[in-house]
Amino acid sequence: MANWPFTQGVHDLGNGLYGYVQPDGTWGWSNAGLVSSRGETLLVDTLMSVPLTRTMLEDFARVDGGAKIDKVVNTHANPDHFFGNGVVEDAEIIATAKTAEEMSGFDPKGLANLSANYEKMGEAGEFLFETMGRKFDFSGVDELTLPSRTFSDRLTLQVGDKTVELVDLGPAHTASDTIAWVPGDSVVFTGDLLFNEGHPVLWAGPMSRWIAACRYIEDLKPETVVPGHGPICEVDAVRNMRHYFEHLMQEARGRFEAGMPWREAARDIPMKEYAHWTDPERIVANVYSLYKEWDPDLEAAPPPVIFAEMNRYRKEPAHEGCGHAH
Ligand SMILES: [Zn+2]
């Protein structure tokens, strides 16, 4: 498993391609990318906040061609991949129609207002505030900057003399999850279809769809993979993510058939080689989503309920599967 050094900032992938990495890769600390060729640029995702996105653009401005951003693609509709869009509002901002629709449903002040409101929001509020609200400066996100160009399924872009293929492999992590594949350089920007050594979180699913997305990326045989979170890596990290899902499905299925409730199953499944991955509380969301798929009559647990459940999980001393206190 060859991870690149997990250091903050620009990583030169060679030949006009760059990754931008934010340790420690947990909630909200996302990665981005830049494709630069013959004076044209494509930015893959903005960051959680305006100040973080500004700093990233200053860093990119020091690399060849990085001083101006012509196009932006938002891989999916999570704030840590598009709340910084206002900084590049003069660029053409591209996303799938589904992602654009999901983005428009976010309250631009929702995270900023958490510091004032989270105590009224119970455990979900506490979780969002602890994991994201208190860590980021949301000033400058007064309204959402949404895509100016949408597509469905796939779109081929020309950036200078480079071909970039945008392919929607969702719904999986969200309703629509786009990768940016640069075949000429064998580099893929996966968005959050890959959390490298972090637990993924399944908001949309089904999980089988995410497994298929992993297989699609593996079949591209990329030399370099820029994940949505975690260090830049090789394709074996995508394979690991697929194995994690396959492990989870198998372990959850046995417990589902034995009648074990989903909350208990989430705490009982052995995490084995994944035990050191970050954000272990996401197992709660992932097991719930499997149970709901297998039993549509299962109680509804919308995101606020899942956030509250993850909050509880984080506060517990240690879990069977996890094997260490956190
Ligand atoms: Zn993310």
Automatic annotation (TrEMBL):
The domain of life is: Bacteria
Q: Which SUPFAM superfamilies match?
A: Metallo-hydrolase/oxidoreductase (SSF56281)
What InterPro entries does its record include? Answer: Metallo-B-lactamas, NDM-1-like, RibonucZ/Hydroxyglut_hydro
Q: What is its EC number?
A: 3.1.2.6
CDD domains membership: metallo-hydrolase-like_MBL-fold
Q: Name one GO biological process term.
A: antibiotic catabolic process
* Metallo-beta-lactamase domain residues: 29-229
Q: Which UniProt keywords apply?
A: Hydrolase
Query: Which Pfam families does the entry mention?
Result: Lactamase_B
Q: What class of enzyme is it?
A: hydrolase
Q: Name one GO molecular function term.
A: hydroxyacylglutathione hydrolase activity
Q: Where are the transmembrane segments?
A: none
The family line of this record is:
Belongs to the metallo-beta-lactamase superfamily. Class-B beta-lactamase family.
- The name on file for this protein is Hydroxyacylglutathione hydrolase
> Gene behind this chain?
gloB_2
